[in-house]
Amino acid sequence: MSKNPRIPFPPVQHAYAAEEIAAVVAVMQEAGPKSGPQTQGPRLAAFEAAFRSYIGARHAFAVDNGTNALHLAATLCRLEPGDEVIVPGYTYCATAIPFAARGARIVWADIHPTRWNISAEDIERKITPRTKVIVAVHLLGMPCDMKEIMALAKRRGLLVVEDCAQALGAAIDGQVVGSFGDFGCFSFHSQKAMTTLGEGGMLTVASDADAALVETLRFNGVCDYEGERERYWMPAMSNVDLKLPGAWPYNFCIGEAQCALGTLGLARVDGLNAVLTAQGARIRAALADLPEIAMHEIPAGYRHVYHQCVLRYDGANWGKTREDLLDILTGENEMRVIVQYHPLYRYDLFKDRGFGEASCPDLDWFWDRSFSLPWWNGMDDATVDDMVSCVRKAVLRLREG
């Protein structure tokens, strides 16, 4: 395939609206000795308030990226040596790294065979007396079975972290993901449905006690001195402290320009998701008659927001593999088809750290047959139909040998 494929896989989901650009410029134009802060100011507070309202979360804290939202969640889980954290084997590496970095033992969970995100049944099989946390990833915009996962966590006394990096706006029976668990972690990377200048994230927190720690945890432990002071500068402008034994604070702050953009982007996100959902539905309908091709099962009441368009090809009846299909799509059709998210236990990093063993037969079978079509928000119908036609012709050709 050439460096400039006919149908690319762009690094950005959609363009900024004129109003969003103006909001960022306004923050820049305000900069000066008499202006407000460029970070941790009123736009941060407004963004967090808007996000709490949208998610239905008790607390929300904006951060510089989704990975660091996960780092905060992992820290607030108060992991001890020997604690186990159940993580899906099928996810982006950032899901697991913060928990492993805190010293937890990662236990890989299998996927649901037709929904392709973490299996509630396999979570239950993997729980041991050392299990402390379940990390439920709403991968590719598809909600996990949060009702069953939360019921299981309650029965077993476990914490639940929702990784919602790819699923802003996804929901189950009207309840938005990120509002089920103890913590919800969101990303506003440039490839997400909503972005804040390429990076950004949000942490939602259910507990008032945990929320009280986040401000100092995300900003170097900086906090006010307790009590009244005769002189505001004595003994210094601010204290440095963290009421969380064994933890050190971070600097995960996000700028005011990003927060201004995020507040406006959040108002657009349902409309943006509707476009992606319509694109996905068009592809689903067009390929429904090909038994070799499958897409996510979407249960009744689930809102899948199609962060990516992932398909599964099973050509076993004709002695064909995913690679045979992708050779045609990428070579002859010049489509930038990709294969994402190697099972984490197959990566060198996790194998080298002792996490290379897993019992995930459904994931192993699925992943060796999965691929992602080129995807962005606002693909015209002609492009969608072109991709579908290429897939269809390639599948039929492989049947003929």
Q: How would you describe what is shown here?
A:
- This protein has 401 residues and is of the alpha/beta class.
- The strands form 4 sheets. Strands 1-9-8-5-4-2-3 form a 7-stranded mixed beta sheet, with helices on both faces. Strands 7-6-13 form a 3-stranded antiparallel beta sheet, with no helix packed on it. Strands 12-14-15 form a 3-stranded antiparallel beta sheet.
- Helix 1 runs antiparallel to helix 8 and helix 2 (42-55) runs parallel beside helix 8 (256-287).
- It is 36% helix and 14% strand.
- The model has no long low-confidence stretch (mean pLDDT 95).
Keywords summarizing the entry:
single chain; 401 residues; alpha/beta; Aspartate Aminotransferase, domain 2; Aspartate Aminotransferase, domain 1; 2 domains; 7-stranded mixed beta sheet; 3-stranded antiparallel beta sheet; 15 strands; 14% strand
Helix and strand arrangement:
Layout lengths: L17 H13 L11 H14 L3 E5 L2 H11 L7 E5 L8 H5 L3 E5 L10 H7 L4 E7 L8 H11 L2 E5 L7 E2 L2 E2 L6 E5 L13 E5 L2 H11 L3 E2 L15 E2 L15 H32 L5 E2 L7 E2 L6 E4 L8 H11 L15 H5 L8 H7 L2 E3 L8 H19 L2
Parallel strand pairs: 2-3, 2-4, 4-5, 5-8
Antiparallel strand pairs: 1-9, 6-7, 6-13, 8-9, 10-11, 12-14, 14-15
Helix pairs in contact: 1-8, 2-8, 8-12, 9-12
